[in-house]
Amino acid sequence: MHVNLTINGEQYEADVEPRLLLVHLLRDVLRLTGTHIGCDTTHCGACTILMDGRPVKSCTMFAVQARGKQLMTVEGLEQNAKLHPLQEGFMAEHGLQCGYCTPGMLMTSYAFLQKNPKPSEDDVRWAISGNLCRCTGYVNIVKAVQHAAAKIAQGGA
Amino acid sequence: MIPAAFEYHAPSTIAEATALLAKLGEDAKVLSGGQSLIPLMKLRLANPAHVVDINGIPGLSGIREGEGLLRIGALTRETELEESELLRTRYPLLHDTSKVIADPLVRNLATVGGNLAHGDPANDHPATMLALGAEIVAVGPKGERRMPIASFFTGPFETGLKPDEILVEIRVPTPPARSGGAYLKLERKVGDFATAAVAAQLTLSGDGTCAYVGIGLTNVGLTPIKATKAEAVLRGKAPDEAAIKRAAELAAEASEPAADLRGSIEYKRDLVRILTARALRRAAERAGR
Hints:
The structure holds 2 protein chains of 2 kinds.
Chain A: E1 2-7, E2 10-15, H1 22-29, E3 48-51, E4 54-57, E5 70-72, H2 85-92, H3 102-115, H4 121-127, H5 138-153
Parallel strand pairs in A: 1-5
Antiparallel strand pairs in A: 1-2, 3-4, 3-5
Chain B: E1 7-9, H1 14-24, E2 28-31, H2 37-42, E3 50-53, E4 63-66, E5 69-73, H3 78-83, H4 85-90, H5 92-100, H6 104-107, H7 112-117, H8 125-132, E6 135-140, E7 143-148, E8 153-155, E9 158-159, E10 166-173, E11 179-186, E12 196-204, E13 210-218, E14 225-226, H9 228-234, H10 241-254, H11 265-286
Parallel strand pairs in B: 1-3, 2-3
Antiparallel strand pairs in B: 4-5, 5-10, 6-7, 6-10, 8-9, 11-12, 12-13, 13-14
Helix pairs in contact in B: 5-8, 9-10, 10-11
């Protein structure tokens, strides 16, 4: 089945089997390997991408369901060789250890900050409750998101 | 994990979808939010030869209130319930429920219709809709059919939907003034199924007694459970501590939990008792006791 979709502002197309999962289209067919496959069972959120602005688990969608949609993956955060404030925040606050959950954390946080630009710690914890970090580095992840929120509020992005 | 191969269908009208289902019969599964179906297909616990994706059918989503009914389109995402000001202010039981289903990412895709049509006793909306006395609207090749929620769940993962029917809408009677509800769920972590959960809905009369009582139980039986004896004991009485205690005991008796990693039978049954009492107290407070 033929699939046309927009990812990070660019047009992509591919011929896929209906059973191909969206995350496999991204990683294996289109070679956008920033999105990770973690648990592969809809629990961990490492595969989170944005579909029409909403964070969703790309391991729990078929690629054919994304036809005509606007997707954003972690590769879309950096603009003109400049890191997004969230990426800077994760660096500055040591928001990653092994880094496996990071693409999902970033994409969930990106969508969240658009809705809630001045979040409390509780708000952030609620927002990322569908993203698991096996290093249990949540304290610094929350700080990283708040770092980004402050930076964006100062006009950093 | 990779699901077994299937043929994908994307009808653009309900008539087209039901005609497909009528033709394909038991070989077809309806794909709504996919947050239960796709994991099952990846585990090869479900291997439908045909998947009928209803996401492209217009008019199946949205929340509307009028003529004494709240109408929730089957394709309405859980996030839409969570973000609805109408639900937050007038249907607190539904708002409570939408905040504790799976996790925020799953809720962006998961649908209310799917949560019910899946027939999973561990899902949250069945108990909520049992407590609210909702009605299920289904459409098949022969037209529309309405079913009371109390008889909708016929067995584990089985509902009153026929193979050629699609659940299109859920109708909840608009509660009169002095109504309130609450959903209380104990889960080991965000995203887990409930160890047990209880939905309670009350309407108080002018004299402070309960004119309406609805109590639904999640994940403590082979099907979602409507705690009818607990409802009956509270109906016509003031929701005071003695009455709530008795209703909570009857709700616990109505539960038929299985022992698993989440707890023993005794633990879960006692949890139903505790959660029922707390849910009824909160519902009564919200009703303006």
